[in-house]
Amino acid sequence: KVLALPEVVGVFKDAASTEFFCIALEDLNHGYAVLDQATGVGFDDMKALFLKTADLHAHFWESPLLSSVPYLSLGQSSSSYTPWFESWYEPWLADPEGSTNVFVPLCANPPFNADPYQGDYGPNMRKLIALLNSVRPTNNPLRASQRLCQHCPDPHSILLVGGRQNPHGFVKAAGEELSKRPRTLLHGDLRSENIFKAKAGDPAASAPYKFIDWQCLNPGPGGVDFVQLCTACMQPPEDYARLDELLQAYHTRLGEIKPEAAAAYPYETMKKDYVSSNGRGITRVSSDADRCCQQ
Question: Distances in Å between the alpha carbon of 17 and those of 21, 22, 136?
Answer without folding.
Answer: 9, 12, 47
